[in-house]
Amino acid sequence: MKNTDLRKAFKLSYKEGKDGKFENYMSWLENQGFPNYLLNYNLTKKYLFHNLEYLALDLDLIAKLGKSVGYFINNQDDPIHISLVGVKGSGKTLYLNTILSLIKEIEDNLKVNYIDWQNVDNPEKLDEILNDSQLYNILLFDSCEKRKDFFNIFSSKENYFKNKLIISSWAVDTFFYNNDEILNLFPNINTYYINSLTEKNAESLLDILVQEFKGDKQDILSFNSFFFKYSGGNPEMYIRLFIKSVKKQFLLNLDEFTLESINFARDEMNLSLITELEKLSNQHKNFLKEILILSRNQKVYASKLIEKFNLTKATVSYHLSQLKEKKFVIYHPEGRSIFYTINPNLEPYIQIFFRTEAKLNDKTRNLQNL
């Protein structure tokens, strides 16, 4: 391109911008008729929390939780602990917030407290929560996997949690890895696994996401099968894929929603790698599971994997380089050392390995005779 062409292109664009013809993503969303909560995932999640009644949650699970709450009201000397177990983004927080909302509708005087453990970041706040917990009948504990000292807390403050209904949420890898400790701490535990979306439920979710869209909703809803397939039915990844696809439509300067923008978004999120996970060797699956578990509470160096699998440094390095090349793990240089984490977009699908092996229903009890 000649310099004269560069100058002409710049001057023309400069004049358009000066005349107010500049369009950023927010103004584009508005012009296209998309609601502003699609700017990012956190805004969308907040929107969904305010529209719980529209969500296609598992009614059977909601009914079982409702039954346990009803039973507890008349039998408060009989403590119940329920654990909701699922992969990242499966909707554990959504279920807890739904239960919180429904309990408040039915029992105004019932004392219920919701605690997200990932937000308890200092000893003073922890002490406050533990002391306050004695005042409540029902405790909803979210993100239990975020507290590496969770078991110590409950063991040392066991009297604080007597005669209560506790509903806790766990990442499936942590629940499986610490299953014996959990069963020892809560011998009367009842466990429910949160499954992925069905394609029909995924369409209902998409319908909620676009209910304030001012354009042709049916045009977007027609792409549900692609969002469902590419996300594997994981609610969070489904939503993130949709949001990123809308943004790709803007970046690609497309006049309408197309499969092209969805495919670009899928590839950018590495979701095309999901099918490759099942093809991995057992050794590579074990590496991924170990990195995932260890990284909950510490940085994972090659030395940890050498110790765990009793392999040579060269062998571990070889496997890690293969996993890095396939984008399953991420390298983090730290001085002369390197620590490893799981590709965050693939974490839910790696957690499925734990679900398959854990056989949760065989290892823990479901609610009976309530």
Description:
This is HTH arsR-type domain-containing protein. Pfam families: HTH_5. InterPro entries: ArsR-like_HTH, HTH_ArsR_DNA-bd_dom, P-loop_NTPase, WH-like_DNA-bd_sf, WH_DNA-bd_sf. It is built from 20 helices and 8 strands. By secondary structure, it is of the alpha/beta class. The chain folds into 3 domains: 1-32, no CATH class; 35-270, Rossmann fold; 276-342, Orthogonal Bundle (Arc Repressor Mutant, subunit A), CATH 1.10.10. The strands form 2 sheets. The protein has a 5-stranded parallel β-sheet.
**Total beta-strand segments:** 8
CATH architecture group name of the largest domain: 3-Layer(aba) Sandwich
| Average predicted confidence as pLDDT | 86
Number of helices: 20
Biggest sheet record:
5 strands, parallel
Radius of gyration: 24 Å
Helix proportion: 40-55%
Structural class: alpha/beta
Low-confidence stretches: 360-370
The secondary-structure element order is: HHHHEHEHEHEHHEHHHHHHHEHHEEHH
| C-alpha termini separation | 76 Å
Strand order, main sheet: write it out.
2-3-4-1-5
Shape: globular
Could you please say which CATH topology of the largest domain applies here? Answer: Rossmann fold
Q: What is the CATH domain class of the largest domain?
A: Alpha Beta
What name goes with the CATH superfamily of the largest domain?
P-loop containing nucleotide triphosphate hydrolases
Domain HTH arsR-type: 265-365
Organism: Candidatus Lokiarchaeum ossiferum
Protein name: HTH arsR-type domain-containing protein
